[in-house]
Design a protein that fits this description.
This protein has 144 residues and is mainly alpha-helical. It has 5 helices and 3 strands, in the order ααββααβα.
């Protein structure tokens, strides 16, 4: 069983960037995943396969990209702890309740503080030569 505790928010955001660059089908094929709708990560209005992103992010963090058989259960909890929104397709396509037709008046002098992430961001160690994230061993896989 693989530990997903080493995956950080930065690793998941890198996976999202690479997903966008490669396209959904190429990204899923490269990891051996099939398109599934049970866990969808929503980021900036776009939808992603949460399991595939977590497998890729684990590979970015450790150098060991997980295939679907090795990915443990509970990916949604790991991603929500990192501050991401994960839902099923049914939850996303459910009609939203009707909103109020009147606009509430803004309160003078009060503003809300931004929400804190659910989990503190770990310090990411970078290679001083190529600026990639160092593996768990502390060595760069590309330069050493």
């Amino acid at each position: 069983m693989q530990s997903l505790a080493v995956v950080s928010r930065i690793n998941v955001l890198t996976a999202i960037r690479d997903h966008d660059q490669q396209g959904a089908e190429n990204f899923l094929d490269s990891l051996g995943f099939e398109r599934r709708d049970d866990e969808i990560l929503v980021e900036r209005g776009r939808r992603y396969d949460a399991r595939a992103l977590l497998a890729y992010a684990h590979g970015k963090a450790t150098g060991d990209f997980l295939d679907p058989e090795r990915l443990p259960v509970g990916t949604a909890k790991v991603l929500t702890d990192l501050g991401f929104t994960v839902a099923s397709r049914d939850e996303l396509e459910r009609p939203k309740p009707a909103t109020r037709t009147t606009t509430p008046r803004p309160r003078a002098g009060r503003s809300r503080a931004p929400a804190k992430p659910a989990k503190a961001e770990p310090v990411v160690k970078l290679c001083p030569t190529c600026f990639t994230q160092l593996s768990v061993t502390g060595t760069c896989d590309f330069c050493d």
